[in-house]
Amino acid sequence: MLDLSSTLSRRPEVRGRAPWPDHEYVRGWGVFGLPFDSGHVLALRVFPEGSFAPYRTLWHRDPGGRWSIHVDGERLDTACPRYYGAACDHTGSARIGLTWTGPVSLRVTMDTPAVDWTLTARVTRPLSLLNRVSAVLPPATWRPRPLVGARELAARALGLGRLRMSGVMPSGHSGTLMPQQMYFIDEAHATFDGVDLGHPVRLRENPRIGDVPLPARGVLAVGQAVWRIQDRAEYERMRSLTARPS
User: In sequence order, what are the beta bridge partners of 224?
Assistant: First the structure.
């Protein structure tokens, strides 16, 4: 029986180094993207491990295409806005709560703007097979472009649309997203600042933040992401600023 609550709620906060030289990284889980029939899109990132400090973020795109990223963490510039903020109309701090209400059911809340979002994940037989294979493949298999392309084709076959797992972020960082397990989200309900977002939907075109496509249907993903360090001195300075006393 699938039990995401047990495996995802107990992840320790760890500060480490990326699996590849000259890269910064995060490791954790989240809702890769969830489009609604109202035109809104939500996403969630929960990264207890990374190069800097742990954080959670909630992303929102309104029907007009305007993105916002809300950060529950020490700094905006070492969380998701570091890579995607240039494509947003707003980035800011917020308190984000996570409550598992069942083995595969999650409630996400945020204080400002007010968000109340519930979702339930599920796995299909093809997705389960893909997850088992992905779990044993080493990070090095994400470096050759043909192997990344094969994963993108598999994602398209699963109905996720034309995803790109590697490319250039709105910030200019070259990055690679490396999901190891994925689970569909077909059942969800959310309100954002008092607005009911409607029902989950599968889109014909992938929603985009900048030039980066998100899934065309709701997906919860577990894995990691890496970005090539742009400025070594800035990277080391951020490492120093986010270091915790030993």
Answer: 27, 178
